[in-house]
Amino acid sequence: MQTRSITSRPAALGVISLTFVLAVALRVWGIDTRFWLLEDQMRDWWFALGPFSGLPLVGPPTHVGGYTIGPAFYWILWGIRVTVGPWFDNLPHAGGIGQAILQSGADALLLAAVWCRTGSPWIALTTTVLLVTSAYDLCLAPLVWNPVMGSTLAKTATALVLLDWHRQSIVRAAITAILAWTAVHAYTGAIYVAVSVFVALLADPFTRGDRALARRNLVIIAVTVVLLQLPYVAHQVSNQFRDDAMGAVSGSVGRILSGSALPEFMKSVNGYVGAVRFIEFAPWNVSFVGWALLACGVVVAIRHRRDPSLLAMTLVPQALAIVGYSLFLAGLDHYYYLSVMPAAVMTLVLAVSAVSPTRLAPTVGVVILVGALAMVPSKTRFAATMHRMPQYGLLVDASRRIKSVGQPMRSIRTEFSLPPTTDPEYLFRVLGGRIDPGSPWTSVIMTDGRVIYRNVNGP
């Protein structure tokens, strides 16, 4: 089924548009009162508030040392601040809204891609519902955080490959490669999807006997990666090549190559299975996820053996993630696998549809969609318990009132406790207020939202 056969049908276009709107609404509902404002969000949004020329040439620092290998996350975040920020006084939750819009756009595009690829709206909608309403993804989507951006870019590149968009011109193939590699800029864990996109760009024309197109795509991939790494090279030159971007990763690989450590394959398998179980199904305890993924992977490999692009975007990212993280000797967090979740979900859903008798396929599709929808209430309730800062709305209101006084403050503190890395003065500065150590005035934000002003020089 061709892409235009879906997008040119009013009903299909309406479903895709409605999915986008609902996904955005679900993700940003209440964001202005409980945005998760921690150190990473404050640092990255502060960069976005500055001029484009002031953005770093590399990505955000990682918690295992080093930083991501390119500035695409900051470029996109700056674009969000310019376009979305003014509607919300340039407060940081505007960045979360912008990221939620991009993530929802990627989901809508993937919906169209799976629909076109399978010819089934039920399979496509089931895939999208499972991804959008994943509790962990749902609570992370409206954040200013680079792993979310990496997942969004990787998902977009995946959708374009499934739409065969890259076949239509050199420019479209280049855009697909750019999106894949900027996902790695945003978050290193997206490398498994990026490599899978590159595999699809090469395997698709190669299996069709078009060797010239395969060679052209190889050149496009190489040029794309080289050009996108020029900011990183400039950063290294300016620092005399003393920065180690991927210190933790290179350290693990070095230990394995030297023979002092072995790859931790079972740890990687268990980490991946645990991530799928938590990200996609929590709070439901689906204990058989690992065996289900294995069985479904076999079914998809057999059923779609003549579709290298589909296999590249479903099975290859998962295999690469397991192998890749077996070479990483530190602990594995669930969010490392965010960009691989579309591959896992598509594998599960496509396998169910593949084993269904042809005459029952629509009925089976409706049944699994109903099952996915039935899980939504519990997943959304669970999402509301994670990564929320309920004091955010109170801080915003109080910071606006303090700013309206027109008086520089020596300090701002709160009567209530905040997360350790949250700065109660941050929003005041974003709104244009000034913190001046020489000012005689301090302010205290009370638990009921009142602001008390105190003069350090006395009454």
Task: List the keywords.
459 residues, 2 domains, three-stranded mixed β-sheet, 3 strands, 63% helix
Question: What's the mean pLDDT score?
Answer: 92
SSE string, helix = H, strand = E?
HHHHHHHHHHHHHHHHHHHHHEHEE
- Proportion of beta-strand residues: under 5%
Helix/strand-derived category reads mainly alpha
Got a strand count? 3
Order of neighbouring strands in the sheet with most strands: 1-2-3
How would the global form be characterised? globular
Please compute the radius of gyration using only Cα atoms: 24 Å
Low-pLDDT windows of residues = none
Figure out the total of helices.
22
Helix percentage range: 55-70%
Domain tally: 2
List the helices and strands and how they pair.
Layout: H1 3-7, H2 10-28, H3 31-34, H4 39-49, H5 72-83, H6 93-118, H7 121-132, H8 135-140, H9 146-162, H10 170-186, H11 191-207, H12 211-228, H13 230-238, H14 247-258, H15 265-281, H16 289-303, H17 308-326, H18 341-354, H19 361-374, H20 376-383, H21 392-405, E1 411-414, H22 426-430, E2 441-445, E3 451-455
Parallel strand pairs: 1-2
Antiparallel strand pairs: 2-3
Describe the structure.
The chain is built from 22 helices and three strands. The longest helix is centred in the first third of the chain and has 26 residues, at 93-118. Strands 1-2-3 form a three-stranded mixed β-sheet. Helix 22 links the parallel strand 1 (411-414) and strand 2. The chain has 459 residues and is mainly α. It has two domains: 3-383, no CATH class; 392-455, no CATH class.
